[in-house]
Specification:
Length: 463
């Protein structure tokens, strides 16, 4: 007989048990469920809603159940439907009627809302730690290659020379924003819905703030209907997971391109590459490709959860059981991707000479040639036209800007002097961009120093 079966004259059909059960995926919240029950029970005893001795026994037994679960001694039952009923069933089996007092003043609706908040809070903090580790790899890679020049791109066309370290630190900024978003998620989800009951609150004199504080939560939900039906926090977590994967996917795409023979900018370590079943020469960037592919999976989790929630009336509906598999999958995917991606980056060989050679091609110094003329007094639009004509000439002659003689330079514009050669050198093209956020050696060194400080703080958690 189900713990809720008093109103029913029949047992549920076996196919219903299977279809209705969530224990196959919500069992992972066992620790959060037990911790939530302990806090609730402490409050019941403090308030005199149940005898203090009963509360103490329930709390003691819940601790024993937690230990048994972690020791692999518990097998959950599909007939008990979910993690909440499984643990309550175990409790009653061990201490009898006293265990039946635990659910006083509580519904599975506010219980599951609490468990999911607690679980995602913990997972978000773990992912922030993964981001910190990933950012450390970016910083180390940037520092180890501090003077390496590469072409910067727009439209996947060579644009201007930049430092490879500057390119890497762009991803540091992206992931810092992701860490901030996770912290904001944690802050918003870190309120307790316990006391909302099924939807309308409860007639018992609960101390909701006490239970929330016992769980390290900053406060309580302010509306019982919202308390049990809100899944904004889960959707927000899926969104941030999608953002993290989007950033990783962009870097993955670049790693895939850079490791190709056409670019030859990097070579992935053998331990983080795979081969072909038919082509012996192949060395494939499968880790990067999987990260790129799994991004679509996480996007799907977000869209699925948004779709589940879009038409639900207040308050709780069974549809909301579908929230967990989506957000769990998103969290699991990010948790698996960040560490292996970081290891792939840390073992990657950077082909510095190939990067510099590529930066010297494709007229990446054309903007600097135009800036040279502007500094000589020519309006920028006129300078832009002059250099455009020069690039067209060099393209037709298969030459570079710096290969032109001074007479050839003057043939395009009399303002050119001997100092043009220094102005269009790759080093000057990079180092003259010496403003905050720029690609100069000075600015990138400063950015790396600042990044070390920021990453060591990891935006401390609110608890």
């Amino acid at each position: 007989m189900k713990l809720w079966g008093g109103r029913f004259s029949k047992s549920t059909d076996k196919s219903v048990d299977s279809f209705n059960s969530s224990i196959g995926f919500d069992a992972r919240m066992y620790r959060q469920d037990i911790n939530g029950s302990i806090a609730h029970c402490e409050m019941l005893g403090k308030q005199g809603i149940i005898p203090k001795s009963d509360a103490d026994l329930i709390i003691k037994t819940l601790g024993e159940i937690l230990s048994d679960i972690e020791d692999g001694l518990i097998e959950f039952s599909i007939e008990a439907e979910d993690i909440h009923m499984n643990i309550e069933k175990l409790l009653i089996e061990r201490i009898g009627d006293i265990g039946k007092r635990l659910h006083t003043g509580r519904s599975r609706n506010d219980q599951v809302a609490l468990d999911l908040r607690l679980y995602l809070r913990d997972e978000c903090e773990k992912i922030r730690s993964h981001i910190k580790d990933f950012n450390n790899v970016l910083i180390e890679l940037a520092e180890a290659n501090i003077g390496v020049v590469m072409p910067g791109y727009t439209h996947l066309q060579k644009a201007q020379p930049i430092l490879f370290s500057h390119h890497l630190m762009a991803y540091f900024e992206m992931l810092c924003r992701d860490s901030e978003r996770l912290l904001q998620c944690i802050e918003r989800m870190n309120v307790s819905p316990l006391g909302s009951g099924a939807l309308a609150g409860t007639t018992y004199p609960l101390d909701r703030e006490f239970a929330a504080a016992a769980l390290g939560m900053k406060g309580i939900t302010q509306n019982s209907l919202d308390g049990v039906s809100d899944r904004d926090f889960a959707i927000e977590v899926c969104f941030v997971m999608s953002m993290i994967m989007m950033h990783l996917s962009r870097l993955a795409e670049e790693i895939i391109l850079w490791s190709s023979g056409e670019f030859g900018f990097v070579e992935l370590d053998d331990a983080f590459s795979t081969g072909s079943s038919i082509m012996p020469q192949k060395k494939n960037p499968d880790i990067a490709e999987l990260a790129r592919g799994k991004t679509g999976r996480v996007y799907g989790d977000l869209i699925a959860l948004l779709t589940v929630m879009k038409g639900l009336p207040l308050a709780y509906n069974k549809d909301m059981q579908e929230d967990k598999e989506q957000v769990f999958d998103a969290v699991d995917t990010v948790s698996a991707t960040l560490p292996v991606f970081a290891k792939m980056l840390s073992t990657m060989k950077v082909n510095k000479s190939n990067m510099r050679k590529a930066a010297a091609e494709g007229f990446t110094n054309a903007t600097d040639a135009a800036d040279y003329l502007v500094k000589k007094g020519l309006p920028f639009r006129d300078a832009h036209k002059v250099i455009g004509e020069m690039v067209a000439f060099c393209t037709a002659e298969n030459r570079t800007i710096e290969s032109l003689s001074l007479d050839e330079f003057k043939g395009f514009c009399p303002l050119f002097g001997d100092d043009i050669y220094n102005a269009v050198s790759l080093e000057n093209c990079v180092n003259l961009r010496d403003i905050p956020g720029g690609t100069s050696l000075n600015q990138v060194k400063s950015a790396i120093k600042n990044a070390k400080r920021r990453n060591s703080l990891l935006y401390p958690t609110i608890r």
